[in-house]
From TrEMBL:
<dbReference type="InterPro" id="IPR036046">
    <property type="entry name" value="Acylphosphatase-like_dom_sf"/>
</dbReference>
<comment type="similarity">
    <text>Belongs to the acylphosphatase family.</text>
</comment>
<feature type="domain" description="Acylphosphatase-like">
    <location>
        <begin position="62"/>
        <end position="151"/>
    </location>
</feature>
<keyword id="KW-0378">Hydrolase</keyword>
<dbReference type="InterPro" id="IPR001792">
    <property type="entry name" value="Acylphosphatase-like_dom"/>
</dbReference>
<dbReference type="InterPro" id="IPR017968">
    <property type="entry name" value="Acylphosphatase_CS"/>
</dbReference>
<dbReference type="InterPro" id="IPR020456">
    <property type="entry name" value="Acylphosphatase"/>
</dbReference>
<feature type="active site">
    <location>
        <position position="77"/>
    </location>
</feature>
<dbReference type="Pfam" id="PF00708">
    <property type="entry name" value="Acylphosphatase"/>
</dbReference>
<protein>
    <recommendedName>
        <fullName>Acylphosphatase</fullName>
        <ecNumber>3.6.1.7</ecNumber>
    </recommendedName>
</protein>
<feature type="active site">
    <location>
        <position position="95"/>
    </location>
</feature>
Length: 153
């Protein structure tokens, strides 16, 4: 039991030492082994988010994307949000009145290139006809927070 508690203590210490924004709890379970009268940690996993080079830590590139095609009403904004958040990018995504999807993302060139690739591929059920991209001034990153969907409810 002492070894298990030391392991749990070490895991908790690691979690507490890391900045909270970098940690994402995935799943954990603790149970009691009645036969041996000890606590057993079944599963505890913490994944570091990919914000190692995000705009919060230092300014990076800022890109504006306009995505044309069948991109509204098919979950495209949620797809962009998931992809950008997994890459640790800052910014936002929203629908436009003209039927397109617009996004602003900030981060390292490598992560932005991955996002660009995902935007061109599109989500299931969408059809991307064009991705128009403009680079913005690095100072635009200062006002961006964690990647989010604008205008969602």
């Amino acid at each position: 039991m002492i070894d298990v508690l030391r392991s749990v203590s070490a895991i908790v210490t690691v979690i507490l030492v890391q900045p909270a924004a970098l940690l994402e709890p995935i799943n954990f379970a603790v149970t009691m082994d009645a036969a041996n009268r000890r606590v057993v940690v079944l599963l505890i996993m913490v994944r570091l988010r990919a914000v190692k080079h995000s705009a919060k830590l230092r300014l990076g590139m800022v890109l504006h994307f306009l995505i044309r095609g069948r991109v509204q009403g098919v979950g495209f904004r949620w797809f962009v949000h998931r992809e950008a958040a997994e890459l640790g990018l800052s910014g936002w995504v929203r629908n436009t009145e003209s039927g397109e999807v617009e996004a602003v993302a900030s981060g390292d060139a490598k992560e932005l290139a991955e996002l660009r690739k995902s935007l061109r591929k599109g989500s299931r059920g969408s059809r991307v006809d064009a991705v128009i991209e403009h680079e913005l001034a690095e100072s635009e990153a200062e006002g961006l927070g964690p990647f989010h969907i604008e205008g969602a409810w």
